[in-house]
Amino acid sequence: MAIYVDSASVDDVTAAASLGFVTGFTTNPALMARVTRDALGQFGRLLASFPAGPAFFQPTGATHGAVLDDARAAAFLAPARVVIKLGATPAGAAAAAVLTKEGIRCSLTAAYAPAQALAAHGTGCSWVIPYVDRADRQGVGGFALVGSFAALLAQLRSDTRVLAASLKTPAQLTDAVLHGAHDVTAPLDVLRALPQHPLSDAAMHEFAAAWDDARRSP
Asked: What are the structural domains of the chain?
């Protein structure tokens, strides 16, 4: 099981690397557009900021050929690390079929139906990515979606993994795992909150106070 930070910010990715439990990072064109107009250049900077683990890049090309060119250029930056994100669409599946045969790891993203998980398996994708919170808001049922993907892929004994995205709270993240997600990705603020709980803080204060009292005792 892997936890990824979902961001195109060098500061976020660097901070996530310091948390100790984050495996890599995921990006998309919307995240890239917040920080740059040079997606490939920014991706190179992100790779340098998080120097180990999978790194997900989504091409921005407008045609099939441009998507393949973008994907190959991104994969060239770190062949052992880069995973190409492609839309869970006929065009995305077609591009994935080409790239996986070239040895480039791929994922189908923004998947909302089990049939799309089947397409990810059939094209040799390493991941299929359902959008959990967004699916809930659109009445699809995000956690049921994760569960159906996981069940289908398990029945196929597929190597394709479910990477749950669009997770807005620690509770959503843990629920996605409980419903069968193999991996999860979330913004930095969600990841920072994972190890936090008021009762844990209270216990640490009690321990510190008890130790201070013991040191002061004659």
From this structure: 2-216 (3.20.20.70)
DSSP for the chain reads -EEEEE---HHHHHHHHTTSS--EEE--HHHHHTT-S-HHHHHHHHHHHS-SS-EEE----SSHHHHHHHHHHHHHH-TTTEEEEEESSHHHHHHHHHHHHTT-EEEEEEE-SHHHHHHHHHTT-SEEEEBHHHHHHTTS-HHHHHHHHHHHHHHTT-S-EEEEB---SHHHHHHHHHTT-SEEEE-HHHHHHTT--HHHHHHHHHHHHHHHHHHH--
Question: What residues are annotated to the active site?
Answer: 85
User: pLDDT tens digits, residue range 131-155?
Assistant: 999 999 999 999 999 999 999 999 9
Taking only the tens place, the pLDDT of each residue in 76-112 is 999 999 999 999 999 999 999 999 999 999 999 999 9
The model's pTM is: 0.95
